[in-house]
Specification:
The structure is a single chain. The longest helix has 13 residues. The protein is α/β, with parallel strands linked by helices and about 120 residues long. It has a domain of about 80 residues. It is globular, with a radius of gyration of 15 Å. It has a 4-stranded mixed beta sheet with strand order 1-5-6-2. A two-stranded antiparallel ribbon has the order 3-4. The structure holds zinc ion. Zinc ion binds next to loops.
């Protein structure tokens, strides 16, 4: 049983970026990035893309047009605002500059390729 949990922890940490995971636990200072400075991913906003963004947004538990999970890590890692990109009025937070760079090229296409689990129904 314990072995199983340890294995899961290892899988979770080697997945994307250990550095980013550690940094996420640090206190966030007041110098958060204003929305206007966030780099935009240019993309044609199709209904499918909008639906995908809504689904990704819901995953973090709040519909605030901020996808706080790293889309480049299939929404499994916590993203950070300092590695954000904007796509169709949504802010996508990535866990590292590596993941952010990944989405600079065809971010919309990559997002569309994600299989996003349905968010749990609110009670
Ligand atoms: Zn990532």
């Amino acid at each position: 049983m314990k072995k199983c949990i340890i294995l899961l922890l290892i899988l979770a940490t080697v997945g994307c970026s250990q550095k980013a995971e550690q940094a996420a636990t640090e206190t966030v200072d007041a110098s958060t990035v204003p929305p206007s400075t966030i780099e935009k991913i240019s993309a044609e906003v199709t209904p499918e893309l909008s639906a995908q963004l809504v689904a990704a947004d819901r995953l973090d538990g709040s519909e605030d047009k901020v996808v706080s999970k790293c889309a480049s890590c299939a929404l499994h890692m916590n993203g950070k605002e300092e590695f954000a990109l904007e796509l169709a009025d949504y802010r996508l937070d990535f866990c590292s500059d590596f993941c952010q760079n990944n989405y600079r090229e065809d971010g919309a296409g990559k997002l569309m390729a994600l299989k996003i689990a349905a968010a749990p129904e609110a009670n």
